[in-house]
Amino acid sequence: MENKIKISHHILLCATPTKALCCKCTQGEESWNHLKKLIKELLLEDQNRPQGIVLRSKVDCLRVCRNGPILLIWPDGIWYEKATPERIGIIIKEHIIKGEILKDWVIKSTSF
Fold first, then answer.
1. Side-chain-side CA neighbours of residue 44 (13 Å)
2. Which of 12, 13, 23, 111 is least crowded, fewest Cβ atoms below 10 Å from its Cβ?
3. What is the distance between the alpha carbons of residues 68 and 61, in angstroms, rounded to a whole number?
4. Domains of the chain, with CATH numbers?
5. DSSP string spanning 78-97?
């Protein structure tokens, strides 16, 4: 029997833009490293987590090109701006864990 893993969220972070129009080049990489660390520390990759695991993907560009790094959370369709390491910690704890959207940091909402 196939073991299906439940997924609660997928986080996409614009971390290594080739043209870096939205932020300082190093900021995206610092944010990415912090995101990976937090997901591991908070056990969000644990396959036994009742809500499901949290996936993460580092992307080259989310085509916003302002106020980066940009962090997109699926399936919620919430786009956060200025996703610095400090903000990522707050976003993970408030949005992913508590389910509270940080409206002041949202630049776009995409719903289906």
1. 22
2. 111
3. 10
4. 7-109 (3.40.30.10)
5. EEESS--HHHHHHHIIIIII
